[in-house]
Design a protein that fits this description.
Number of helices: 4
Largest sheet: 4 strands, antiparallel
Strand content: 25-35%
Shape: elongated
Order of helices and strands: EEHEEHEHHEEEEEEEE
Number of strands: 13
Distance between the termini: 43 Å
Strand order of the largest sheet: 1-2-4-3
Radius of gyration: 18 Å
Structural class: alpha+beta
Helix content: 10-25%
């Protein structure tokens, strides 16, 4: 791991540059440790943490030293995430194509997708969009060659070994296999994004 300045009010902590559940958990644990220290908000990704601080309250050199200390010592364990059940109607426009690419039937794709819990690795792309996985390796789903101009909010999608739910109407290139009425993002809620990094999703066929 290494830590380096990232602008005037943040430090970037970088881990091994690959997608791995162990590394994702380590990033979440480092983010938790940074926030517990009271320095500021930390945003974990697949293999890095953006640790923010107030430069008027904390000297950048002190923040960097703290980040390097955390990176050098590692972190114990990430806080336990919640289990969120996502009621899903599996009737997406790409379900048949995903089944064909996977060499499975529609029913087998649904069973594979709904048959395991998926961990939210991190949030990005748009508010409330959680990259979750790992996807059952039997499901083969590369991104679309040409993204759709509009994907409806609530679309359940898969791509490149991960799964997600589109929180808002938006363009998108993931394969759509279903839909849910569960609101992934609502600005009127105290916590607008339903899912946080470290939460687990279980898709429940309806």
């Amino acid at each position: 791991m290494r830590a380096s300045p990232f602008g005037e009010s943040a430090v970037l902590i970088e881990l091994e540059q690959r997608i791995d559940e162990r590394i994702v958990a380590q990033a979440r644990a480092l983010a938790d440790a940074w926030e517990r220290s009271g320095l500021g908000v930390a945003v974990p990704a697949y293999a890095s943490v953006l640790a923010r601080f107030d430069p008027l309250a904390v000297a950048p050199a002190d923040a960097l030293a703290r980040a390097r200390s955390l990176a050098g010592a590692g972190a114990a364990a990430a806080r336990g995430g919640r289990l969120i059940e996502v009621p899903t109607v599996y009737d997406g426009p790409d379900l048949d194509e995903v089944a064909r690419l996977s060499g499975l039937s529609r029913e087998e794709v649904v069973a594979a997708h709904a048959g395991r819990e998926h961990t939210a690795f991190f949030l990005g792309f748009m508010p409330g969009f959680a990259y979750c996985g790992p996807l059952d390796p039997r499901i083969v789903a590369p991104r679309l060659a040409s993204p759709r101009a509009r994907v409806p909010a609530g679309s359940v999608a898969v791509a490149d070994g991960q799964t997600a739910v589109y929180p808002l109407d938006s363009p998108g290139g993931w394969r759509l296999i279903g839909r849910t009425t569960l609101a992934m993002f609502d600005s009127s809620r105290e916590r607008p994004a339903l899912i946080a990094a470290g939460d687990r999703l279980r898709f429940v066929p309806r």
